[in-house]
Design brief:
Length: 263
């Protein structure tokens, strides 16, 4: 028998308070670097929380214009996998489903399962999918990685944008990505590149988040601190028995890691 309802609510409030405190500490560390704190001269990796489940955070992401960065992703995929045209795709860490929707529109013969651990992000994503008229082709589900039910090689392609840098243990991420798809299927991962130093990160935020809501600017600098370098990702792929994957830096902010799942 469970405890009294009041106790459950108090426990939930306590859990939420702890989560908020952890997020605030993380953002305080990143802000210290911005303001010239002890780590200002050296760009160190500061992990982000694995989930972005704050309602205001999700609302800001849903309202933002991602056309400059997300609009390129279907083209990146087509360039690297020109023979792919149809099938069942999984979008890992789909968030508010902006990339999911763009991919579905670019590849009209695909269906997509988007998975994310954030209820707040998924709520906005489902609304966007309905508005786009793509409910028959896009399904969004709440999942946490690793998830053994996803690792059954049922999908024809893996797509993922800006999830890798949320993992403290990237091996978990790469194992999931490799085991979701059929042997020989395309896998494409897009993520941020950690800048070489603090000042570069600050300049990138000023240039590419100009006019953005404070929550987006805050998350951007935190994500740049959490991102992996190209060499780190190449080493991750070797450790994950995926050395044949390629890692391309597509612009000053982003990289694409891609290849085909092992047979």
């Amino acid at each position: 028998m469970g405890g009294p309802a009041g106790g459950k609510k108090a426990a939930k409030r306590c859990t939420e308070a702890i989560r908020r405190e952890r997020c605030e500490r993380k953002h305080d560390r990143a802000q210290q670097s911005i303001d010239g704190g002890p780590d200002a001269k050296k760009m160190q990796r500061i992990p982000e929380p694995e989930l972005m489940d704050d309602q205001d955070q999700a609302a800001a992401y849903a309202a933002a214009d991602w056309s400059e960065s997300h609009g390129k992703i279907p083209g990146y995929f087509r360039e690297r996998f020109p023979d792919f045209a149809a099938g069942r795709v999984i979008d890992l860490g789909c968030g508010t489903a902006d990339v999911t929707i763009r991919f579905a529109k670019a590849f009209p013969a695909v269906t997509i399962l988007g998975v994310d651990g954030s209820d707040a992000m998924l709520a906005f994503g489902r609304s966007s999918v309905r508005d786009a008229g793509l409910e028959s082709r896009i399904t969004l589900e709440k999942r946490y990685l690793p998830d053994a039910s996803l690792e059954k090689r049922n999908f024809d392609a893996v797509l993922c944008n800006s999830l890798l840098h949320h993992f403290a243990d990237p091996g978990v991420f790469w194992r999931t990505a490799a085991r979701c798809v059929k042997p020989g299927a395309p896998v494409m991962i897009i993520d941020l590149v950690r800048p070489p130093d603090h000042q570069t990160a600050v300049e990138l935020v000023k240039e590419h988040a100009k006019g953005a809501l404070p929550v987006l600017e805050r998350d951007f600098i935190a994500s740049l601190h959490a991102a992996y370098s190209l060499d780190e990702i190449r080493q991750q792929l070797i450790s994950a028995a995926m050395p044949e994957f390629q890692v391309d830096q597509t612009d000053v902010l982003h990289l694409v890691a891609w290849g085909r799942a092992l047979i």
